[in-house]
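Subject — a protein and its fold

Tokens — whole-number codes for backbone shape
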Amino acid sequence: MTFDDLWFLADRADQQAEQAYHRLVDRYDPLELERVDRVSRGRFRTLAERIDRWGAPYGAHTVVHRDGEALVLVRHDAVGKWVLPGGAPDGGESLREAARRELGEEAGVDASYDGLAMVTRVEVRHGSYATWGVLPVFEARAETTEPAVSDPDGEISAARWFPFDALPEDTRDRGDLLEWHDRRF
């Protein structure tokens, strides 16, 4: 019989996710969402390792808006969609610090952070393996108005303002963004 450490990794990741979830929702009143991502074994390991490290499989993102009328989206070439700016923490950054840095890199927008807009409980599955992590989306009000991409990873090709009532059809999590907007404004 072969030793399979994925069970232990998933268990540790669950514990980190639980801590990250409570640190976030105990401070804010975010829109809470859930989703399930079914992934390959290799991708499961990668995401479980991220959750074990930060409590989050995909880092943190920001919905930055101008008085609830428009928000900044960035064009993520590898995903082929318009997405919220965001990514994984570097070094000892908190999830909020990572969201702020990524907003600057991917969209070039300075913003005042108002709290947590949304938190998604992401269940990650591969076969009989499962773990979960949080996907925090922080809320921020724009202080600068012209987006400018300076992404060191080269994944982002454009950053633009879009009115909430005219989000592109190929916006990732479009329905969630509209639900948050309707709840908030």
Q: What stands out?
A: The chain has one domain: 6-184. Residues 43 and 126 are 9 Å apart (CA to CA). Residues 6-184 form a domain with the Nucleoside Triphosphate Pyrophosphohydrolase fold (CATH 3.90.79.10). The radius of gyration is 16 Å.
